[in-house]
Amino acid sequence: xxxxxxxxxxxxxxxxxxxxxxxxxxxxxxxxxxxxxxxxxxxxxxxxxxxxxxxxxxxxxxxxxxxxxxxxxxxxxxxxxxxxxxxxx
Length: 89
Prior knowledge:
By secondary structure, this protein is mainly α. The chain has one domain. The chain has 3 helices and no strands. Helix 2 (25-42) runs antiparallel to helix 3 (50-88).
């Protein structure tokens, strides 16, 4: 189970899951899927309905949006903490 302990605190918890989910690699993975799967369709290896590709595109955009919002909020939380620390001085 040590492989799933992403923050190396010795406990497998929601923080590990959050760290695994909120990664930019997911944007790359979904982008690759959105490129490779339609190409397989074009080349005749698959026969997948185009609605699936639109759903996949929606998933890609949703994943990107969630990850970007997460890191944007994290940035502003850090900036607010710095401002509060400076005001206390």
